[in-house]
Design brief:
It is a single chain. This protein is α+β, with helices and mostly antiparallel strands. The protein has three domains: 285 residues, no CATH class; 86 residues, Calcium-transporting ATPase, cytoplasmic transduction domain A; 110 residues, Calcium-transporting ATPase, cytoplasmic domain N. It is built from 21 helices and 22 strands. The strands form four sheets. Strands 10-22-21-20-11-18-19 form a seven-stranded mixed β-sheet, sandwiched between helices. A six-stranded antiparallel β-sheet has the order 2-1-3-9-4-7, with no helix packed on it. Helix 16 links the parallel strand 18 and strand 19. The longest helix has 35 residues. 47% of the residues are buried.
């Protein structure tokens, strides 16, 4: 059957390449764009025993064994050539010995080159190395031929190990979800696969065990480690009725949890899918290098042919073997291994480092985008403030029954998911179902409208009252706190004030952004006085309140009109138009809303705004390492290429320019995974 090349969404070839070979050896096929293991709704990321053995133990030894055999045979041959001469070590014996030294490392590369050619991919890294080393044998440069392929093979092994490390760092997050759960049936415990647990099932979670599905806590109280979801190991105390999520670890007593979400729809499943798919979204730099390598390799082959043959037309004493040697050196130097392996590794390192800190990037392209951010635009509630409101005071006009009005407000607010509604419910108490409200309508950016006993009930901001021509005798701007205005039957009833608290690390966030040279602007639908107060407390550059969703869009357009790269931080749902408009959409509250994971480019899992400048720093460091590797590869290879073409560089310099630079670049890329941000 005719082979068909596989390509990713960006048009990058996935098969018949050295990259595919290395990633297959590392057990990291999904990092080069193959379908994620969980694409069919099942988790196949484990071996049968639940562990990853791709490069562990004996397998690592197997990777090094061919190179070790070649190395021993090569050293022995060089010793007999130069230091301990043997009368028998000459002619066909010597040639055969070097061929034996060559085969363990050279045969797999030649085989891969032939496979690539058979599949229509002629100009591969395998072909470059095969031509170079076989050509060296042809001109009797045996030690150099073996050495080149040996170091190439060693470099390939180190690349495989580096990719495996990147895979394991990402897999560490993917392994956070247990495959089995203990459920209670008729008072008896039973262990089943997590995927088979239905909604409504009761999970018995012992101390130290990890929860496999999202649910509601039935026990009176429980302490949970949320590190899998937030990167924070600090225990989080949950009370009866609170939501607990897959990946959380029970800290002390046995807890009972009722399953509320299907296995594949859990918060952790969505996060895992996000991480698995992140590697498919390539950064522009990575895409350029891929395209460059595809064009670059055939050019190099033809240039090598030119270096070998064209001097015949121009030099007086043309020696074929001398110019062939120069061409072979040129080929070895030109191999683009340092670029095509180390650059993806750099981005994987950035994604892995971010994941460990509770920041999820949906692709390496967003690492680059974050590095370029010059202006962060943020929502107020839930981003810079805790989003936990408390009722401060209630002021009603004379003649109104406070208890009756509060019941009406509580009932209408029960139809809103806004944190203000929660604050009112906490203050008033349970909803009185005897209260009759009809035709409840949400008016975006204003509030709620309903019919109560045939009268129009309005609950929202003062703009809502203005919209319906309700007259009131107070100045809303004189009230610092968030206000909930109330009107009934076209008359002003009064208002409630509600206060929110600023997050502990909010001020630090703005300081860190300013240190990075990034401006900060706050946009909110809340009162201008409240927004101005918060902005002043935090040192935010600009702040605008009383904004409708379309107003936020216009403000972001204004900022983008200044040619500034903009990141918007919001809830990912109400602010979807602004998120779409911004260069990077960042969602706060990864634990709070599924929609944040769906809409944002970057998800901050622990609600800490200080993770915003951290995400920018990770993006900058990743980009710096990637550009360091590109610069190193081009400079060293460029110098040695010129020397090689001029006959001043040998195969030994060529080996350093190829394998040496590759190893340095790979080690530099791995460095990201160990950085502290």
């Amino acid at each position: 059957m005719e082979h068909k090349h596989r390509y990713d969404a960006q048009g990058r070839q996935l098969c018949c390449t050295q990259t595919e070979k290395i990633y297959n050896q590392a057990g990291a096929e999904d990092l080069i764009g193959k379908a994620p293991a969980s694409s069919h709704g099942h988790d196949h990321s484990h071996d049968e025993d639940g562990h990853d053995h791709s490069t562990a133990g004996s397998n690592q030894m197997q990777l090094f064994l061919p190179a070790l055999i070649s190395f021993i045979l090569l050293i022995a041959a060089i010793a007999m050539d130069n230091w301990i001469a043997q009368s028998w070590f000459k002619d066909w014996v010597r040639t055969g010995w070097y061929i034996l030294a060559y085969l363990p490392v050279g045969f797999p590369v030649i085989r891969d080159a032939l496979k690539s050619i058979a599949k229509g991919e002629i100009f591969s890294e395998f072909l470059l190395m095969s031509i170079a080393t076989i050509g060296a044998f042809g001109i009797k440069e045996y030690p150099e031929a073996v050495a080149v392929m040996l170091f190439y093979a060693v470099g390939e092994v180190f690349q495989t190990l580096a990719v495996s490390r990147a895979k394991s760092n990402i897999k560490a997050l993917l392994d956070q979800r247990p495959d089995e759960v203990t459920i209670l049936e008729n008072g008896k415990s039973k262990v089943i696969k997590a995927a088979d647990a239905g909604i409504g099932a009761i999970i018995q979670l012992k101390p130290g065990e990890k929860l496999g599905l999202d649910g509601e806590l039935l026990s009176e109280q429980g302490a949970f480690n949320t590190a899998a979801l937030t990167g924070e190991s600090k225990p989080d105390t949950k009370m009866k009725g609170d939501v607990v999520l897959a990946g959380m670890i029970n800290m002390n007593t046995v807890s009972l949890i009722q399953v509320t979400t299907a296995y594949q729809d859990s918060k952790l499943s969505k996060i895992l899918e996000l991480v698995q798919n992140a590697t498919a979204q390539k950064a522009p730099t990575e895409l350029f290098i891929r395209k460059f390598a595809k064009i670059y390799t055939p050019i190099v082959v033809f240039l090598a042919i030119g270096i070998c043959l064209l001097p015949y037309l121009f030099v007086d004493q043309y020696v074929f073997s001398e110019w062939l040697y120069r061409a072979l050196v040129f080929l070895v130097i030109s191999c683009p291994c340092a670029l095509v392996i180390s650059i993806p590794l750099g981005y994987f390192g950035g994604i892995g480092a971010a994941s460990r800190n509770g920041i999820l990037f949906k692709g390496s392209n967003f690492l680059d985008a974050m590095a370029a951010i010059r202006h962060v635009v943020m929502d107020k509630t839930g981003t810079m403030t805790a989003g936990v409101f408390k009722v401060q005071e209630i002021k009603l006009q004379a003649g109104y029954d406070e208890a009756r009005i509060l019941k009406l407000v509580n009932k209408i607010e029960s139809h809103s998911s806004h944190p203000v509604a929660t604050a009112i419910r906490e203050y008033v108490g349970p909803i009185d179902e005897s209260v009759d409200l009809n035709t409840i309508e949400e008016i975006p950016g204003h509030g709620l409208k309903a019919m109560a006993d045939g009268k129009v009930l309005l609950v929202g901001n003062f703009k809502l009252l203005d919209k319906f021509n309700v007259v009131y005798d107070i100045d809303p701007n004189s009230i610092v706190y968030t206000t909930i205005a109330i009107a009934l039957d076209g008359k002003f009833v009064g208002f409630m004030t509600i206060a929110d608290s600023i997050k502990a690390d909010a001020a630090l966030t703005i300081q860190l952004l300013h240190k990075l040279g990034v401006k900060a602007t706050m946009l909110s639908g809340d009162k201008t006085t409240v927004v101005a107060y918060v902005a002043k407390e935090l040192g935010i550059d600009q702040a605008y309140g009383d904004l409708l969703p379309e107003d936020k869009v216009n403000k972001v357009k204004e900022i983008k009109g200044l040619n500034e790269s903009v990141a918007f931080v919001g809830d990912g749902v109400n602010d979807a138009p602004v998120v779409a408009l911004s260069d990077v959409g960042i969602a706060m509250g990864g634990l709070g809303s599924d929609a944040t994971i769906e809409t944002a480019d970057v998800v901050i899992q622990d609600d800490k705004p200080s993770k915003i400048p951290m995400a920018i720093r990770i993006g900058k460091e990743t980009k710096k390492v990637v550009y360091q590797n590109i610069g190193l590869a081009f400079i060293v290879k460029g110098i040695v290429l010129i020397l090689g073409a001029g006959g001043l560089a040998t195969m030994w310099e060529a080996v350093f320019a190829d394998v040496g630079v590759s190893l340095i670049a790979i080690l530099n890329a791995i460095r990201i995974q160990k950085m502290k941000f």
